[in-house]
Amino acid sequence: MTRPHLLLDNLVKRYGAAKAVDGVSLPVERGECIALLGPSGCGKTTTLRLVAGFITPDSGRIMLDGQAIERAAPHRRPIGMVFQAYALFPHLTAAGNIGFGLEMRNLPRAERDQRVAEALAMVGLSHLADRYPARMSGGQQQRVALARALVIRPELLLLDEPLSNLDAGLRVEMREEIARLRSQAGITTLFVTHDQEEALALADRVAVMDRGRIVECATPAELTERPRHLFTAGFLGARSVLPGRVDNGSFHAASGVVVTLPTDAPGRPSHMVLRAARLALLPPGATPDFPLVALATVEAATRLDDSIHYEVSLGSQRIRVHRPSGEAAFAPGAPVTLAGGPDAIAWIEDFSDATGAHP
């Protein structure tokens, strides 16, 4: 078995009695991109700062290409980092900012100039080589920060909320740019985000964090289709999580809905997860051949671009449903049939050492 390029091994960081990072372990393969995803205060940024060397772990190891780096100074680690606020030097031009790390490494002037020119071309900013940060847009500053991190040809690239300071349209553009540059460079990447869409779009795997721990790490497809942990199912948006119990081969939700368990369901699920974009709303009395068919009431309907986001009540439970705006709409107060096929339903099993899920 080959060793991972980056290995976080049981990292712990305390601030007083509180553990900001509580036993984080994560192997990252060479060239892989991992997102640390979670709410504010979950420990994702502290984990990134431990890897960068800005803070020192109380215990645990950080191995990069087989070498322990958890006690090495930040400038001694072969790491490039893009900060949330970009951290460009205001007195240096784009070329000067990009070349700063090369100058600190005492590269010859001719090689520095060549690599800076290549990096500027890579991010499409050759025409702005002599421009200062104050005269650049947010997206241009982000590109300079990326080029500065990549020009030193690091073993590892760290990104701290790389798109949070950009407006919505530019975020999508820069997300695609980061994906292109990372793929082109083939650099192992670890990035922090609270944006689920960003994590699922950029990462090969997503490590979901809560209260200083990684509760689940899987591919975007696995997390969205079949989350194994209750926190993951609730945190990833546009889902509804219904508690219940199993009786005679069927799942009896607390809302009163009964769904026959499929053959691939876990042995004792404690929660049913409904994915909003795959649920259907039909006129009352409709009887589609779906596992989930229940009478519900529309509580709210919000039109957002090409979709309508509904909240419907199912007993005491509120269920989120997203439907294309081209469909016939239902007004608040309308009775509807809530329907869900097998691809709309996932199952969370009771707590066990195997799943790590919480009841």
SSE order: EEEHEEEHHHEHEHEEHHEEEEEEEEEE
CATH architecture of the largest domain: 3-Layer(aba) Sandwich
Strand content: 35-45%
Look at the helices and sheets and give the structural class. alpha+beta
Spans of at least 5 consecutive residues with low confidence: 352-359
Strands of the biggest beta sheet: in what spatial order?
Answer: 6-7-8-3-9-10
Helix content: 10-25%
What's the CATH class of the largest domain, please? Alpha Beta
CATH topology name of the largest domain: Rossmann fold
Tell me how many strands there are: 20
| Global shape | elongated
The tally of structural domains comes to: 2
The CATH superfamily of the largest domain appears as P-loop containing nucleotide triphosphate hydrolases
How confident overall, as mean pLDDT? 89
DSSP summary: helix tally: 8
Radius of gyration of CA atoms, rounded to a whole number: 24 Å
Give the end-to-end Cα distance, rounded to a whole number of Å.
Answer: 35 Å
- Sheet of most strands: 6 strands, mixed
Summarize this structure as a short list of keywords or feature phrases.
359 residues, alpha+beta, Rossmann fold, OB fold (Dihydrolipoamide Acetyltransferase, E2P), 2 domains, five-stranded antiparallel sheet, 8 helices, 24% helix, 36% strand
